[in-house]
Design a protein that fits this description.
- Keywords: Cytoplasm, DNA-binding, Phosphoprotein, Transcription, Transcription regulation, Two-component regulatory system.
- Its main location: cytoplasm.
- GO terms for molecular function: DNA-binding transcription factor activity; sequence-specific DNA binding.
- The chain is α/β, with parallel strands linked by helices and 513 residues long.
- It folds into four domains: 2-132, Rossmann fold (3-Layer(aba) Sandwich); 136-289, Alpha-Beta Plaits (2-Layer Sandwich); 301-401; 439-511, Arc Repressor Mutant, subunit A, CATH 1.10.10.
- Helix content is 57%, strand content 11%.
- It has helices spanning 11-18, 37-47, 63-73, 88-96, 109-134, 141-148, 156-165, 187-201, 227-243, 262-274, 276-279, 301-314, 317-333, 338-359, 367-379, 383-401, 411-422, 429-436, 440-451, 455-472, 477-483, 489-500, 504-511, and strands spanning 2-7, 28-34, 51-55, 78-83, 101-104, 174-180, 208-213, 216-221, 248-252, 285-286.
- A five-stranded parallel β-sheet has the order 2-1-3-4-5, sandwiched between helices.
- The longest helix is centred in the first third of the chain and has 26 residues, at 109-134.
Length: 513
């Protein structure tokens, strides 16, 4: 049975969850409850449960702080978060701290059971994988091979003597390394199937010996794999591994001539696999790919975010795709890590969704669906997969916003809609011209011909009309300026007087007298 600790400051909810479902029928046992974060930490250290269900908002230590402390004690602990209302910011932070799920109160029975079944499956898989790994720890050829992967494997003479005993005294060495993830169903069986494939393709042909190290399957080769063999070898391994439903990367370290240099070949292969997110998983990764590439950062990240949002609003799927990839390239040029890129993309999508909710509040009803999309961002195996997940998120936004593709006869209409919906943003003709794929001078002329006004003049007039309404409601001048898109109050004064003929404060006084 998997032990469960329930943490909530509401006694009725704590006790209610105890009897909410038949825990034992799903492989669980509620061992205790806690009323706050500090008590939860104390009981966790005593009981070491496999699952903690905690409220996101509690006096003293809140749920997010509790997750952080628990993660320090056990990075693999499973955690479900409870919340009294939908909160995208908290959901995002919970996802970043690897919470298994985000449940809204009152808790839905089917949703809770779904999470429990998933978590139990993951715990069972991890247990199987760990048991399988332990069986390979006996001393022998494989254990010696694994020891060679260490940065300082030992005295070269002793290593060579041991290699001779085990039939590993070769003229050259090379490491082929397959790396995969740990959260697949029936992981132990699938990893064994991958190992059998490597054995059949290489070890059985006298090319070297297969070894297993955590989530890696490798081959210590006694003869280098030639470039003409790379494609066929990769295809054969990929056919089996992808058939098992496992994400993987396959890397080849450089050839070395001394047994004490095996660690170097392994280190390069391991580094390649760790960089699979950037290098892709459609080929055998080799040392040549580690040559740093320079990327032109181009447009700023903030400006890209603006363009992406406007592209979503007008329903330009192809442009969204291009801008997403351009944003990724910009992050690469800044030297960001995989984790940082995923975090920045999640933050961007959350911010864009927040803007979308302001336009269409009904988007709030799709809280769980968008939270799952954000979770998928962190699970992306490669940069290309991350792009796909981000595009799916924004495509769903476009569907909900009812966006329509832009045609040649509605550019001005699209511009007018964007102005009236986003007059408080830093709208620029240059930005919209990029979104609509037109030269800014041509688009400005087209706008003038259709509306009789220059773009900036029209935008100012829309802002001033909205400002008049807000002043009539009694808002202060600086508040109105900020709400309609003017960051400089003096500039707002001059624009208001130009179009209304009086100052904002005088207009406010007159309209409220």
């Amino acid at each position: 049975m998997i032990q469960v600790l329930i943490v909530d400051d509401e006694p009725k909810l704590r006790e209610g969850l105890r009897s909410f479902i038949d825990w034992e029928a799903h492989g669980y046992c509620v061992v205790d409850t806690a009323s706050n974060g500090n008590e939860a930490l104390e009981k966790y250290q005593q009981l070491r449960p496999g699952l903690v269900i905690a409220d996101i908002r509690m006096p003293g230590m809140d749920g997010l702080q509790l997750i952080g402390r628990l993660r320090e004690l056990d990075p693999s602990l499973h955690i479900l978060i409870l919340s009294g209302y939908a909160d995208f910011e908290y959901a995002k932070k919970a996802i970043q701290q690897r919470a298994d799920g985000y449940l809204l109160k009152p808790v839905d029975e089917d949703e809770l059971i779904g999470y429990l079944d998933t978590i139990k499956s993951q715990i069972d898989q991890a247990s199987q994988a760990e048991q399988w790994r332990l069986t390979t720890r006996e001393w022998g050829r494989e254990s010696f091979i694994i020891s060679l992967m260490m940065e300082h494997p030992g005295d070269p003479e002793l290593l060579w003597s041991r290699a001779e005993e085990l039939g590993l005294a070769w003229r050259s060495y090379q490491v082929l390394l397959l790396s995969t993830v740990l959260d697949e169903e029936d992981y132990g069986e699938k990893l064994a199937a991958v190992r059998n494939t490597m054995t059949r393709l290489l070890e059985a042909k006298g090319r070297g010996y297969v070894f297993s190290h955590h989530s890696q399957i490798g081959v210590l080769l006694n003869d280098p794999i030639l470039p003409v063999e790379w494609s066929e070898l990769y295809s054969n391994i990929r056919h089996v591994v992808e058939g098992l439903g496992i994400d993987f990367s396959l890397a080849l370290g450089p050839k070395v001539c001394k047994i004490e240099e095996v660690a170097y070949s392994y280190g390069v292969a391991n580094r390649l696999n760790k960089n699979h997110f950037f290098l892709g998983n459609d080929k055998l990764l080799t040392e040549e790919l580690l040559v740093e590439q320079t990327h032109d950062g181009g447009v700023s990240v903030h400006e890209l975010d603006e363009q992406i949002y406007y592209a979503v609003e007008i329903g330009n799927h192809e442009l969204v795709k291009q801008l997403i990839e351009q944003k990724g390239t910009c992050y690469i040029s800044q030297g960001l890590t995989e984790e940082q890129i995923k975090l920045h993309f999640a933050e961007m999508l959350t911010a864009l969704l927040g803007r979308g909710i302001k336009q269409s509040p009904e988007l709030q009803q799709r809280n769980r669906e968008f939270s799952e999309y954000l979770s998928d961002i962190y699970k992306a195996w490669t940069l290309g997969e991350l792009y796909e997940k981000a595009q799916q998120f924004l495509k769903q936004m476009m569907n909900e916003l009812g966006s329509k593709a832009c045609s040649k006869h509605q550019e001005v209409k699209m511009m007018l809609e964007l102005i009236h919906r986003n007059f408080n943003e830093n709208l620029k003709l240059e930005t919209l011209s990029g979104i609509l794929n037109y030269n800014s001078a041509y688009l400005g002329k087209l706008f003038k011909n259709e509306t009789g006004e220059y773009f900036n003049t029209y935008l100012d007039k829309v802002r001033i009309e909205k400002a008049k309404s807000l002043l009539e409601e009694g808002l202060k001048v600086y508040q109105v300026a900020e709400r309609v898109g003017y960051t400089n109050v003096d500039y707002f004064h001059s624009k208001f007087r130009k179009y209304v003929g009086t100052s904002p404060s005088a207009y406010r006084k007159t309209s409220n007298s």
